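Complex record, three chains
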Amino acid sequence: MNNGLRLNKNQQIAAEYKDQHILVLAGAGTGKTLTIIARAEYLIRKGVDPRRILLLTFTRRAAREMTDRLYSGIGDAANVVTAGTFHHFCLLTMRRMADKFGIKDFTVIDRDDQNSLMRLARAGYVTKGEKFPKASQLVNIFSYSRNTNMGVLEYLNKYTEFDDETCNKILAVFTEYKQRKQLNRYLDFDDILHHFGKKLHEDSSIRNRLRSRYDHILVDETQDTNPLQWVILDGMKDPAKLFCVGDDAQSIYAFRGADFRNVHSFKKRIPDSVVLKLEDNYRSTQEILNISNWLLKESPLKYNKNLKTQRGTGTKPLLVDFDSDLYEAKWIAEDLIERHETGSLWSDHMILTRTAWGSRSVEAMLIEKNIPYIFIGGISFLQAAHVKDLLCLVRAAASNHDELAWIRYLTLWPRIGDVTASRLISAMKEMGNMKEALDQLSNKLKKDQQKIVNGPKTILKYWNEPTKALRVGGEFLKPILSQKYDKWDLRKKDFDLLVRLAERYRSLMRFIETYTLDPITSTVASRLENQDVVTLITVHSAKGTESPVCYVIRVEPGMYPHIRSLGAEDEEEEERRILYVAITRAKNELILTRSEGPSSYSYSYGDAAEAYFLSDVPDKLVEERWQYEMYLEKDDDFLT
DNA sequence: AAGCTCTGCTTTTTT
DNA sequence: AGCAGAGCTT
């Protein structure tokens, strides 16, 4: 073949298949990304206009990787391929056709903001001390029902045991939430997909225009598409052809409405489609695949996966037991240092964790031992409180309708709490433009509070210079934030980072929007400075990545399956796939670690132990080792 | 009456 | 680290 990529037979067949709807079922490490890239290259070489190719992924990181690889294959043509996440693509398209979609001047809000808004909506319906789901749980319910195209009531009846009265109240709160969203001109994540999908199906002029724009739609990680995203694919296809790649055994986003069975119904949904398979693994040694295969075979479900390597054999996976998670962390850090001293790169090592929280002792130890690392997943940079303070100041300056941003900004100041803030905002909302709104605010404030108005005013002065606006805004907030946060010295350098991130943007709002959709973690940002680092990552974020040496930490009862999933069959099964994803990231060495020390999960240890996936892993698949250090100082100081 | 501060509790995964 | 509630201060 002359396409520059080294493909095996089946990969090539898939990449060069004739124009048809295609599903490629590809196991872990079988070259999914390679094949999807090869398909794009093949189409372009064959003469398809690259502008008529749409590449959809689930994370911006994946989209980025795809365009980078495409660029190194075919050069500039790669830059005109539309590539992005579902949310990104939909939002961008709606922004371009803002009038048609009717979303002019809308602000995109993240999960945090959704929770805040839900809290406001909830407040009017719940009396103090009453038992009623928390705002975050309500957001989850609402979001899930929308992502699965299910009515709220249907969801409540099917998955919860609330009584009728509570259900009605939930519905009322949701109505209130929707009204507030409308009033504030907010779009939440689900609105982006929902609104797009709705218009796509209901408005024929929009549908025709969008459908005629692309000939080929390539979809990565198809097993994670939820019904709402499917509605979008369904509306966009024909004449455009779908090229979907996925693996049912790696479906780990059920909580977002994805159903791993959806790859099985592909042929039913699209009768004139073909299903191709990739089965040869190029990533891992056979020992790593053996335990992966074993894990799936233990399941009551038939995944029918039996990965075979093309790489030969290596070392057996290691399963190390510790008597405490502190010692587990210490051992990993020391192991890393030893490997580094004997010539390995830090960046050849990945530490996988089920929960962001569960990795904190390891993270503390990496810091303690001066091991450079990045953390991916968990709390992101732009959700850090002080960063959000600054971003909300910018948002406040942008719109006198952005209630959440204004509340946040105003309550930063002394003697202003949510009650006063709400009063001030409702007055400002009446005004036709920002200038009037600011005058109004100025009128309502006492003499010694007048400087509050200066914040948005300064931002507006530099509106067309994002970096300058952020720098000036940061300076403005400095006195008040340094009082609010203890470790201000540590936090303030994030503002420099923010300024640097904004450099590439001409519009402040576009900058904020981009990073609302796919926030960057502070440690990822600092990688700009240091490339050779250990990666500490949640399993969910690690999908699609690989590393020569992988530590999967805290592989203990209560973690796999996670204790919160116990009792729900589907959820427990998803936990198995999460562990499967984790261990199939490893190329050469897989090290599973666990501790039996006192853990916060011990309270229902019985059930957790019963469901535990590795309770009887055969001896021939792993080398088990005990590392007990009973006399390790009981000194928790380094954690603080 | 509104805002502030302290304390205890919980902590799955993410666009 | 963030949130909710209790009790205290302005």
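Note: Residues 598-604, 631-640 of chain A have pLDDT under 50 and may be disordered.
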